[in-house]
């Protein structure tokens, strides 16, 4: 075996050639799409789930939150396990768990069983997702191939939420809400059968496992995500919210203290010493916060105010995934020509412009304005996600790609939790019974401000660079 071939096999491409490796990575990204879809696919099915399983209004939110809590809280742990024990192995274990608990969730006969199944789905997703991005970044033949793969991954990550709403509406209207979970089973089985044949295992890394880092990182992330998720119902000043944030902050502080003193840390402090990476992580968190907040509000507007069916509600989001996919075809070339930072600034500014009309929604607002906002959001996401991924993973050593990927995706999940909590609280503060628009407009202002924070994060990086020159 030549040294080049050996390197490619070690990176995760099978020795049968780059074509086979490419097919393997497509299947890995199909699994990533499944994981991303599951964050929103049950959204439009929630009224049907509540009726069928007799959920109370308070319990119903945990169909979404149980998944987000486990997914966001365990991503760092999943990334580190992939680095140490092999990324393909960890990926397949995560997909297997996700598939099994998707089936059990679809068969659930009580609220408790469904929420537990959703949380265990999140556990599987947290193990699988960091390895997806790590396999992509370490398997590319060159920078151009890496940018193309990252563009496709970013398109999947950014359009998955909108596609989940479309697929959820379609399955709920034509079959049953249970198929929003059953649909994962055949996809998972195909991935589990084919990926071992097409993607080689990455080598195991020597070293001890950082138990203190695993406990503090996972516990801190879970506490913060939990506090933010329930803040919309309990209130930002409630003891539960403040206590959860305080516990999370203490655990993260312990993590920061210990990770500088262990030989093989779960989260390498060096990952946070790059200004461009920190700016990318902050921008990604704020971007995801604004987008998920917009999804949350838009679904209610389309169903409660415009009285659209779940299927039509899902189809209304179609401009987003179409525009994101179209942008994914050209963004790699734009990054090579203009640089990642400029595209992020353009995309963040466009998203703020797209959200502004939604803050002025009224009874007579033309539907084309709503569609234009969704189209602008899709284009902005297409411009933003791949460059942010590039900035976050730039100059990361191959052996730490899983940890960096876990950190990046943790920021996505934390950002989404923050966005939903802020918007839910804002909406509740201004809500008027039987009138979505009053509270909805305030919520859209919150989403717009979150998007402006993403823009400010990257502009701050540009200003700092110019001052240094």
Write the layout of secondary structure elements.
Layout: H1 3-11, H2 18-37, H3 46-53, H4 57-85, H5 87-106, H6 111-139, H7 143-174, H8 179-182, H9 184-198, H10 211-234, H11 239-259, H12 275-305, H13 310-316, H14 319-338, H15 340-355, H16 367-393, H17 401-430, H18 436-468
Helix pairs in contact: 2-6, 2-7, 2-9, 4-5, 4-6, 4-10, 4-17, 5-6, 5-9, 6-7, 6-17, 7-13, 7-14, 7-16, 10-11, 10-17, 12-16, 12-17, 12-18, 14-15, 14-16, 15-16, 15-18, 17-18
* Mean pLDDT, all residues: 81
Note the beta-strand portion: under 5%
Distance between the termini: 47 Å
Helix content: over 70%
Supply the number of helical segments.
18
Number of strands: 0
User: Unreliable runs, pLDDT <50, ≥5 residues?
Assistant: 1-17
Shape: globular
Structural class: mainly alpha
Radius of gyration: 21 Å
The main pleated sheet reads as:
none
Q: Helix and strand succession?
A: HHHHHHHHHHHHHHHHHH
Architecture overview:
The chain has helices spanning 3-11, 18-37, 46-53, 57-85, 87-106, 111-139, 143-174, 179-182, 184-198, 211-234, 239-259, 275-305, 310-316, 319-338, 340-355, 367-393, 401-430, 436-468. With 469 residues, the protein is mostly helical. The protein is built from 18 helices and no strands. The model is unreliable at 1-17 (pLDDT under 50). The relative contact order is 0.13.
Short précis:
This protein has 18 helices and no strands. It is mainly α. It starts with a helix and ends with a helix.
Name some characteristics of this structure.
globular; 469 residues
């Amino acid at each position: 075996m030549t040294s080049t071939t050996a390197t490619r096999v070690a990176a995760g491409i099978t020795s049968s050639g780059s074509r086979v490796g490419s097919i393997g990575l497509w299947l890995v990204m199909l699994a990533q799409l499944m994981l991303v879809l599951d964050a929103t696919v049950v959204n439009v099915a929630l009224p049907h789930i509540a009726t069928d399983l007799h959920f109370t209004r308070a319990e119903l939110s945990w169909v979404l939150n149980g998944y987000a809590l486990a997914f966001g809280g365990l991503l760092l742990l999943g990334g580190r396990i992939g680095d140490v024990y092999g990324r393909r192995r960890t990926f397949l274990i995560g997909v297997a768990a996700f598939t099994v608990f998707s089936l059990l969730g679809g068969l659930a006969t009580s609220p408790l069983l469904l929420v537990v199944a959703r949380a265990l789905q999140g556990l599987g997703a947290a193990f699988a997702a960091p390895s997806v991005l790590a396999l992509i970044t370490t398997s590319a033949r060159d920078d151009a191939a890496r940018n193309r793969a990252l563009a496709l991954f970013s398109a999947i990550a950014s359009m998955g939420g909108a596609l989940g709403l479309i697929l959820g509406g379609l399955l709920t209207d034509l079959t049953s809400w249970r198929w929003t979970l059953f649909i994962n089973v055949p996809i998972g089985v195909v991935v589990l059968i084919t990926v071992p044949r097409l993607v080689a295992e990455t080598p195991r890394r020597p070293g001890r496992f950082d138990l203190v880092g695993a406990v503090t990182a996972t516990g801190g992330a879970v506490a913060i995500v939990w506090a933010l998720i329930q803040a919309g119902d309990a209130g930002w000043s409630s003891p539960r919210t403040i206590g959860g944030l305080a516990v999370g902050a203490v655990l993260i502080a312990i993590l920061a203290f210990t990770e500088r003193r262990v030989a093989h840390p779960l989260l390498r402090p060096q990952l946070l010493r790059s200004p461009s990476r920190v700016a990318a992580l902050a921008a990604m968190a704020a971007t995801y916060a604004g987008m998920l907040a917009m999804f949350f509000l838009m679904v209610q507007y389309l169903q409660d105010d415009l009285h659209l069916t779940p299927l039509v509600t899902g189809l209304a989001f179609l401009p987003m995934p179409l525009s994101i996919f179209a942008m994914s075809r050209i963004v790699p070339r734009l990054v090579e020509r203009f640089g990642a930072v400029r595209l992020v600034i353009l995309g963040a500014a466009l998203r703020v412009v797209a959200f502004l009309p939604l803050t002025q929604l009224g009874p007579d607002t033309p539907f084309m304005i709503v569609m234009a906002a969704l189209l602008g959001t899709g284009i902005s996401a297409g411009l933003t996600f791949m460059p942010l991924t590039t900035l976050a993973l730039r100059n990361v050593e191959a052996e730490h790609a899983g940890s960096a990927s876990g950190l990046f995706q943790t920021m996505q999940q934390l950002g989404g939790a923050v966005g939903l909590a802020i918007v839910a609280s804002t909406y509740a503060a201004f809500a008027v019974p039987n009138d979505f628009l009053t509270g909805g407009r305030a919520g859209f202002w919150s989403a717009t401000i979150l998007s402006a924070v993403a823009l400010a994060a990257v502009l701050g990086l540009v200003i700092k660079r110019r001052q240094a020159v």
